[in-house]
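Lecture notes, unit on protein representations.

Consider one protein chain, 169 amino acids long.
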Amino acid sequence: MKITKINVSVYKTNCYILSIGNDSLVIDPGDDFPKIEKAIGNKNVLGAIVTHSHPDHNGAVNHFENIYDYNNLKEGMNKIGPFEFEVIHTKGHRFDCITLYFENEKVMFTGDFLFYGTIGRTDLEGSNEEDMKKSIDKIKKYPDAKIYPGHGWTTTLKREKEKNIYFRS
């Protein structure tokens, strides 16, 4: 699976385009659809997945025929075309946050749940500190994987387990 990252929105949201062969999925199409469209090229877009319902992550969803999110992806294993992944409900930053875990590739797309060295804010409308603690406990059980967050740098689950202050408890 090829992963292409582009920054969109004034918040520098990481939008990811996943490709297997000629098929693609877009994760968190924040805005700036022309930039996203250019990165997609002539790939067959199967849809867009939104990790949570903040405008910097879903601003361009109206440009996609199939939109997947908390409401229509079940927790557990999912398949869209050749893409097989686990959906993990990771509430905390927002009640509708999901993390996508691609076990075969050992990668996670965490939206605003988990970042390099920190976690998503829990002081916003729709967020909850206790839910965040439960989500961190849930994600700690997974094996090491490369983390592709909603903003900032990539990291690894191993690094976050070892260095992230929010994982200490």
